[in-house]
Amino acid sequence: MIYRTACIAILFTILRGANALAACPEPPSTNFADEATTLFNCSSNRPLIGGEGLPKFQVHYDFPQTLPDSSNLPWLAIDPFADPGGYMLSILHYATKVNARPDIDWRIQDNAEESWCDAPWFQDLREPLHGMTSERWSRPKELHALQTDWERNWAVGIYNDVACYGVGQMWDDPTFPKTKDFAFADGALGVKMLFTTAMPSEVPFLTGSKEWQVAANDDGSIITMRMLQLDISVKDKRSPNGWFFGTFMYDATQPGDNPYERLVPVGLIWGSDPDLTMSAYLSKAAVAKESWVNPKVAERFYALPRHNLGLNGRANGPVDNPLSACITCHQQALDWGRAVLPNTPAAKQAAELLPNVPSDPFDEETAKAYFINIGSASPVPGAQSLDYTLQLAKGMAAFRTWVIKNFPDHAASTTDIPPYPFKDESQDNMMQPLSASTDAHRFDQEQTDPSTQGMFSR
Ligand code: HEC
Q1: Distance, CA of 314 to CA of 296 (rounded, Å)
Q2: Alpha helices for 82-239 (secondary structure H)
Q3: Which residue has the higher pLDDT, 258 or 361?
Q4: Does residue 337 have its Cβ closer than 6 Å to ligand 1?
Q5: Please, which residues bridge with residue 262 across strands?
Q6: What does the alpha-carbon distance between residue 217 and residue 117 come to, in Å, rounded to a whole number?
């Protein structure tokens, strides 16, 4: 008997070791609490081929138990409207000061001077070397006139201590996330670095940028990628909507001793400019009033098919969907209090309640429904806002999907908000076992597969 158990254990180890080096560990038991906690703490469930000797991504949940003092954050001394570039650079300096040091290189668990954290429930999407997740692709000529190929982009996001306090309020108990009345405190900061497969031969401004080995291929093999964009989201009550979103891009022509010093502010946005319709833009020369866009950077893109970075000149990044804008997409972060499985009546209603990036910017009715300002209100009354933070929304959706598929009896007892009352739903639809995760993918900046990416043809 003992012999048989040992044999099975050895066989199991061999099988696991052979095909998935970065697989999540086995939970100590198959009960709900053990499985939920093991997955919560799992860094990456994606494969890795090669990469021996390279440090692995380690998910890090340093959640302060009390709200950190945010009165001395350096950017508070700068007026974001009078000096948007300076405001952004002060945040960039704060975020990179320790994290970007070569001995840390964004392994936030090694940062002994500050506390930063990751967002939970991305174990199935994070690659095992840097915890990066797949982003929208860049189509030919979107980044530079010399770009001939589709390029892949991957990104990793982290949060400062003020934000981590909020994440900890939500995820203090990995078996029972709490989202009721969720909101971050002022001073919360998200930072996201985007790396691309584009080579300097196609996108010359990437020359000399920071390179990372990323296990981005489906089989776990490694690609070299380089830093293209760095995004920030900061909760600051000076914004009429409570948040500023800013983006930097790497620019080889800038002076600087290291790649971070060659990041230039691209734009800052604090509202969706609801009145900036296509007709106002084209026939009345209307401009974005709730964005600042760095004119020197913007002019790099005018001659390209995308023309602007965000729709009609709203702030957005080079990697982002040119039909959208940072804050407009982000304000849709929410928790339904339940899973929303794909191809169900609930998913259909969810899509209607949260309008997606309009595929036709000339369709003014659809564009107007999308480019709204909501302040701190929920994007859907009756659902809980997750305060403009889409990683939290996607992680929560992944957790709820896992619960309904594996422990349906726990669905009701793992939410502290009422499940959103979608109409006309039979239990059968709710329980349908489906492989894709949830409607959360609708937040993807766009389809990541170029064969299905048809939006924003101009
Ligand atoms: C069309 C939608 C969309 C647009 C436009 C967009 N984002 Fe995001 N953003 C996302 C999604 C989805 C995530 C979660 C990423 C993931 O899957 O890991 C995210 C994550 C982030 C994060 C990490 C914190 C968080 O909210 O989870 C930051 C910071 C961020 N984005 C900043 C920006 C900035 C700055 C811009 C504009 C330059 C921008 N985003 C434009 C969809 C968007």
Answers
A1: 15
A2: 84-96, 161-171
A3: 258
A4: no
A5: none
A6: 25
Kindly report the protein residue whose alpha carbon is nearest to atom 19 of ligand 1: 390
| Token pair for 369 | 């429904």
167 lines ligand 1 (CB under 6 A): no
Spatial separation of the C-alpha atoms in residues 404 and 412, rounded to whole Å? 9
* Euclidean distance between CA atoms 173 and 437, whole angstroms: 22
317 CB less than 6 Å from ligand 1? yes
Burial bucket for residue 418 (CB in 10 Å: 0-12, 13-18, 19+):
middle
From the CB of 272, is ligand 1 less than 6 Å away? no
| Number of neighbouring beta carbons within 10 Å of residue 1 | 5
How far is CA 276 from each of CA 5, 289, 371, rounded to the nearest angstrom?
68, 9, 9
Of 136, 326, 327, which is best to mutate to test ligand 1, by the most ligand atoms within 8 angstroms of its C-beta? 326
Q: Is the CB of residue 163 below 6 angstroms from any atom belonging to ligand 1?
A: no
Report CA 301 to chain centroid distance, whole Å: 24
* Structure token pair of residue 379: 């994007």
H helix or E strand, kind and range, residue 431: helix 427-431
Residues 279, 407: Cα–Cα separation, whole Å:
51
* Among 128, 254, 140, 259, CA closest to 193: 259
Neighbours of 404 (CB within 10 A): 22
DSSP string, 29-86: SSSHHHHHHHHHT----S---S-TTSPPP---B---SSPPP-TT-GGGGS-TTT-HHH
Q: How far is the CA of 427 from the centre of ligand 1 (A)?
A: 33
What confidence tens digit (pLDDT) does each residue in 401-425 have?
Answer: 999 999 999 999 999 999 999 997 6
Closest among 119, 118, 121, 117 to 64, alpha carbons compared: 117
Q: If pLDDT is split at 50, 70 and 90, which confidence band does 263 have?
A: very high
Q: How confident is the model at residue 21 (pLDDT cuts 50, 70, 90)?
A: low
At 106, the amino acid letter reads W
